[in-house]
């Protein structure tokens, strides 16, 4: 009896190990699919869990804007799809916009606070492998001069919107100034994209080309940011 169960137990153990090894890849595949087909996933979530979708949305936006290690979450496309679901009558527009605005503001405030907390600790290293005093001084001057518009525009740029508040904190941008532009940027970002989804998200052409629109929301702002950074570095070198 014992011998006959050995292959079965061994096979179960091997299958278990394979599942453990595949979990990171499965998670990556799920995240990639969620980003590209956020409309389908959200619609299924609303139909399955109802009002819990508001808690999920608050968490996603708060984590994307509040934790510098989570820049890949689908902020722009998520807001647009939420607006489309509101336009279809599956969600409440005012409640969704209010919670998403709050999540965006609190997330940036947390991100700024983390940068502000670690900044003074890093500043003790006058020059090291991980810290360049000259680079910090340049960042500080930049945020004092252009920090407001940077915080607002960064809202519409994937990845950059996650790092901009953190860098603002590290560069010691004043909290009152940061908070003002944080509120403005969050209002324009959440209000603009959610209302756009509410107005246009249920048009037949938009629904048929939503995957292309999502890709455009991800790639176009990223390319513009890269071009802007390249031009800025060329001017700085000149």
Automatic annotation (TrEMBL):
Subcellular localization, as worded in the UniProt entry: Cell membrane
Pfam families: VTT_dom
UniProt GO cellular component terms: plasma membrane
InterPro entries per the UniProt record, alphabetical: DedA, DedA-like, VTT_dom
Domain VTT residues, every copy: 73-198
Protein's UniProt keywords contain Cell wall biogenesis/degradation: no
Keywords carried by this UniProt record: Cell membrane, Membrane, Transmembrane, Transmembrane helix
Primary location recorded for the protein, binned into one broad class: membrane
Membrane topology classification: Multi-pass membrane protein
Coiled-coil portions: none
Transmembrane segments: 51-73, 80-106, 146-168, 180-200, 212-230
Family: Belongs to the DedA family.
Protein name: Membrane-associated protein
Lineage of producing organism: Bacteria, Pseudomonadati, Pseudomonadota, Betaproteobacteria, Burkholderiales
